[in-house]
Amino acid sequence: MKLTRIVLLSVATGIAAAASAQTYPAKALRLISPFPPGGGTDAVARVIATALSDQLGQQVVVDSRGGASGSIGVELATKAAPDGYTLVMGNVIPLAMYPAANPKVPYVPLRDLAPVSLTALTDYTLTVHPSLPARNIKELLALARKRPGELTYASSGNFSGPHLSGELLNLMANIKLLHVPYKGTGPAGIAVMSGETTMMFGTGPSVVPHINTGKLRGLASTGAKRSRPDLPTFGEFLPGYEVTQWYGILVPAATPKDIIDRLHRETVAAIASPKVAQVLTNLGTQPVTNSPDDFRAFIKAEGEKWVRVIKAANIKAE
Question: CA angle, 245 as apex, 239 and 249 as ends, to 5°?
C-alpha cells in the first residue's frame, strides 16, 4: 500500500510538472542586466528581451542591477525563485573574470546558475579621445613608453573586462597605463569623450556609435580577426593579445529542465530571426547560440583562461 502511494505521488508530481511546463509562461518574466544602462550588456539584454517577449507571448522586462563588476545582478539571479521567471544576461566579467580575481564573490557561477544559451559575441575596441596624438596602436605604445603612468584608461569597474584588457596590455606590451574605474560602461565612455580620461576598451554596442560620430577614435579591436575592415586587431601589432566579450542567458540553478529547454528553444528561434540578428549585428555584435551543455563548457573554459591571466599579471582583489 505504501509503495502504491509513492507511485501515485510520483505520477501526480510528473503530471503537475508537465502541466506547469505547458502553461509556462503564465506571467511576465524578468531579465536581469547586471550592468547599468548605456553599456553593451544592457543593449543586448533589451534586444533579447523584446525578441523573447514575441516568442513567449509574455512581456520580458529588463531589470538593470549594475555594480561590483556585474556581481550584484548575478547574485540577485542566483537567489531568485527557480521557476523560469527570472533570467540573467551574463557575460565574461561576472561569470569568468571577477570570480577569478576575487575569491570572495558570493556565488559560484556554474553551481548557482544554469546556462541556457549564448546570445552574442563581440570584441572590445580600444578607443581614445580624438585629441590624443596617436592614430594607431604602434603610436600609442610609443607614447605610453615615453609617458609611463600618465595615460589613463577608463573601465566599467574593477575586475571588469575593460579593466583586465588594459592589464593584459600592460603585461604583454611592458607599458604602464593607469586604470580609472567607473560605475558602468556608459559613465566610462562619457569620461573619455569629455577628456577626463585618455582611452577605454569598449564593446561594439557602447563605442561604435561614438566612433561613427567622431566623438571617439577607434585604434584596434581585441578579437582574433577584424570586426570591421578599417579597424586592425591588437594581434597585428602585439601577437597573442586577444580578449572576447560574450553575452548569454542563464537562470537559477534549480530551474526545471523542461523550462530551461523551452527558454533555449525560444532563444534560438529569436536569434535566428533575420530582424533580431540584424539588430544585434548593428550593435557591433555577432549573433550566436549554443546548447546549455556547450554554454556550460564555454563558461568553464573562460574561467580557467582568466585565472591564468590574473595570476600572471599578479592582480589581486582589494
Answer: 150
